[in-house]
Write a structure and sequence with these properties.
Layout: E1 15-19, H1 24-29, H2 40-46, E2 67-71, H3 85-102, E3 106-110, H4 112-119, E4 127-128, E5 138-142, H5 153-173
Parallel strand pairs: 1-2, 1-3, 3-5
Antiparallel strand pairs: 4-5
Keywords: DNA damage, DNA repair, Hydrolase
InterPro entries: MUG/TDG, Uracil-DNA_glycosylase-like, Uracil-DNA_glycosylase-like_sf
GO molecular function, one term: uracil DNA N-glycosylase activity
Length: about 180
């Protein structure tokens, strides 16, 4: 069995990025968004969320920027079709507990499916959600960064820019 990719969580984070689960490549490397076909790190840089392009091996470094990482399911798989209903149920509870414990300013769900699995809502729009699951934590739904997503990179980056401008505004207000 492949190792789980450890969470990078702390108190006082601006945002926690939440994925479905690690890919097999991420499981092998031990880092979040470790598949070279995953666009996550480029999206963060192009949307202005990070000041430069980070390599997946630097994922822990993003804690210094106030950004954390976790997944709804910790077990690496080839794809989301390999995740069981039982794993989602257990993962939902664990994720709820993590968000209640750490209370980031924003929980960013990397994919609508991640959010609908967590929230149990049948659908979600991109961006900030009007009704949140966790009190005091704003919930943001962003497109998946998987190379399999059929949206254009430009469209994906535009949605992440909404998150980036909100993070920039929050950091200005806290100065």
């Amino acid at each position: 069995m492949m190792n789980e990719v450890s969470d990078h969580l702390d108190y006082g984070l601006s945002v926690i990025f939440i994925g479905f689960n690690p890919s097999l490549r991420s499981g092998e490397s031990g880092h979040h968004y470790g598949n070279p076909r995953n666009h996550f790190w480029r999206i963060l840089q192009q949307s202005g969320i990070t000041p430069r392009l980070y390599h997946f091996s630097e994922d822990r470094e993003l804690l210094k920027l106030g950004y954390g990482f976790t997944n709804i399911v910790a077990r690496p798989t080839r794809g989301i079709d390999d995740i069981t209903r039982e794993e989602y149920a257990a993962g939902r509870k664990l994720l709820y507990d993590k968000l209640m414990q750490y209370k980031p300013s924003i929980a960013c769900f990397v994919g609508k499916g991640v959010y609908t699995e967590f929230s149990r809502k049948s659908r979600a729009e991109w961006g900030f959600q009007a009704e949140t699951v966790i009190p005091e934590v704003r919930e943001f739904v962003a497109p998946s960064s998987s190379g399999l997503v059929r949206m254009s990179m430009e469209s994906i980056v535009e949605i992440y820019k909404q998150l980036g401008s909100n993070l920039a505004q929050d950091s200005q207000e806290s100065e």
